[in-house]
Write a structure and sequence with these properties.
The complex is a heterodimer. Chain A is of the alpha+beta class. Chain A has helices at 4-17, 47-50, 69-79, 119-129, 150-157, 166-180; strands spanning 22-30, 33-40, 83-89, 99-107, 134-141, 144-149. Chain B has five helices and four strands. The chains are: A alpha+beta, B alpha+beta. Chains A and B meet through α1, α4, α5 and α6 of A and α1, α3, α4 and β2 of B.
């Protein structure tokens, strides 16, 4: 992956596939570090799956998954001297409070640290594919914090206008782009 | 600054069209967004289709959907175009530029861009 934002799109797809209703993506850049959190309330993973989740070619998706997404991210993170941590509670063992939280810290001054890339495009791709999910996005960088909370948007749009309506996506693109400027 | 009031105006403008659009969408554009697709550039292909539909006014004619990996990772980004009552057409090694041409010629004009299809590669 050429950008961290592409890794984030990829691991967030895992959350959506795990039927998450809420998804939180929090990024914080500064002091030579990039901290990334992707937290969901999806099905979660039991310990035996969690233990293998970052191993190459390990997948629970059968023929549909290559088992490389988390592995590639772990490799990217570790190459910079950073660390990746996965915590998960599976739905069967924790019916009331389940989900997965991924936290990663990269050393952004390391020569192998990829650029953050286009986070706006990543958020838009997530909204386009899963307009019904509550997404809370925040990105603290260079003294400002870019945020998006789809619950606020949905409160205005109501049930009749989905978030992936092209006109709404265009609005979100400009809303986020302005915050980054 | 973009305001939430603008969003409310968008809602009022499009809300009556949504049902009509959904019933009219006869073409499905499916972009593979698995790990392999994303690594190969599927995100910009996805946005090229989404924005192209908006620019060309193809609302209510075509809808963009995302799928996972369907195999053939080495030919990603892969895009499938499914027109009602016709065989599925699979485009491979897609780019944003190719997406623009597929929208114009295939989705809008009804003519398959054979040089980008899997069958022709």
């Amino acid at each position: 992956m050429k950008e961290l934002s592409l890794h984030l799109l990829d691991v967030a797809q895992n959350s959506l596939r795990a039927e998450a209703k809420h998804l939180r993506i929090a990024l914080c850049e500064g002091e030579g570090r990039i901290r990334m959190t992707v937290a969901d309330d999806g099905q979660g993973m039991p310990p035996d799956v969690l233990a293998h989740a970052t191993k190459p070619f390990f997948s629970t998706k059968g023929t549909e998954g290559a088992g490389l997404g988390l592995y590639l991210l772990a490799q990217t993170v570790e190459r910079t001297g950073g660390s990746l941590h996965l915590a998960s509670r599976d739905q069967q063992s924790y019916p009331d409070e389940h989900g997965t939280t991924l936290t990663a810290e990269l050393i952004s001054t390391h020569i192998d640290c990829p650029p953050m890339g286009d986070m706006v495009a990543t958020v838009l791709a997530l909204l386009q594919g899963s307009p019904e999910v509550d997404l809370h996005f925040s990105h603290a960088v260079e003294g400002r914090t870019v945020t998006l909370d789809t619950r606020e948007l949905r409160a205005i749009l109501g049930t009749g206008v989905p978030l992936n309506t092209p006109e709404v996506l265009s609005w979100v693109r400009e809303f986020l782009t302005e915050q980054y400027q | 600054m973009k305001s939430l009031a603008e969003l409310a105006a968008i809602r009022d403008r499009v809300k009556d069209q949504i049902t009509l659009r959904e019933s009219g969408n006869s073409i499905r554009i499916v972009v593979g967004m698995g790990t392999c697709g994303i690594a190969a550039g599927a995100r910009s292909v996805l946005h090229a289709f989404v924005e192209g539909i908006d620019k060309k006014g193809l609302h209510g004619k075509a809808v963009v959907l995302q799928s996972g990996c369907v195999g053939g990772c080495e030919r990603e980004p892969v895009v499938e175009i499914i027109c009602k009552g016709q065989d599925k057409v699979t485009y491979i090694n897609m780019t944003a530029e190719k997406a623009e041409r597929v929208l114009e010629e295939h989705v809008k004009g009804g003519k398959i861009v054979t040089e980008y299809t899997a069958a022709n590669a």
